[in-house]
């Protein structure tokens, strides 16, 4: 059985997850050099997928990692409804902030002591690859415990409002929304919310919503074979023509051309292929 080998650091990182239910006859989309590794986990049924000259039947309780630099394609349609929770891919790496106080009182000192004890104990075997991996995972726990300090949990009130607004928009993006709806949901004046989001994210609530809808549409264009009109409806655009106009303004191509370019050309759709070693990628 082939294996994928990564050279760390940096460690492989999570980007996005999704959950898909494929009915009988549905197929996994054909894609080429998607630029990021795609982990598929099947909870029910079976997916029939080929990658270059290999073919896989990914049944319930099995997982398959699709490589970032190869062509993969469906070999058959599903014979029954398939549940596939799958950490997915996106089109740009989204950075995030980690706020760690320089000086703080530990919230869970006993837990911190134990994790540090484990780190020190692993040092004697740190020449082993799996030990260095485990040390990195433990170090992430250290950072999270430091960030849990009271000083790290006191963001500006405006930042809290902006984050709440973003979370609400992401939860309800499929619905018809207005600034008034957002204000009533958060119990703040829409103008104040807009000011907070502009300061936190550099855009208005409706601009944030539009970009999130387009990002979800791009996921569906590249991860499913759904018609463009249905994708528009699924992500909150109630007029296909308006969806196409917004997509062209944002991406410079129509949704159909975006999908076609990606399927035909490695590295298309705004993706930069990840350099790879034999059997995997860095």
UniProtKB/TrEMBL annotation:
<keyword id="KW-0804">Transcription</keyword>
<dbReference type="Pfam" id="PF12833">
    <property type="entry name" value="HTH_18"/>
</dbReference>
<dbReference type="GO" id="GO:0003700">
    <property type="term" value="F:DNA-binding transcription factor activity"/>
</dbReference>
<feature type="domain" description="HTH araC/xylS-type">
    <location>
        <begin position="163"/>
        <end position="261"/>
    </location>
</feature>
<keyword id="KW-0805">Transcription regulation</keyword>
<dbReference type="InterPro" id="IPR009057">
    <property type="entry name" value="Homeodomain-like_sf"/>
</dbReference>
<dbReference type="InterPro" id="IPR037923">
    <property type="entry name" value="HTH-like"/>
</dbReference>
<protein>
    <submittedName>
        <fullName>Response regulator containing CheY-like receiver domain and AraC-type DNA-binding domain</fullName>
    </submittedName>
</protein>
<dbReference type="InterPro" id="IPR020449">
    <property type="entry name" value="Tscrpt_reg_AraC-type_HTH"/>
</dbReference>
<keyword id="KW-0238">DNA-binding</keyword>
<dbReference type="GO" id="GO:0043565">
    <property type="term" value="F:sequence-specific DNA binding"/>
</dbReference>
<dbReference type="InterPro" id="IPR018062">
    <property type="entry name" value="HTH_AraC-typ_CS"/>
</dbReference>
<dbReference type="InterPro" id="IPR018060">
    <property type="entry name" value="HTH_AraC"/>
</dbReference>
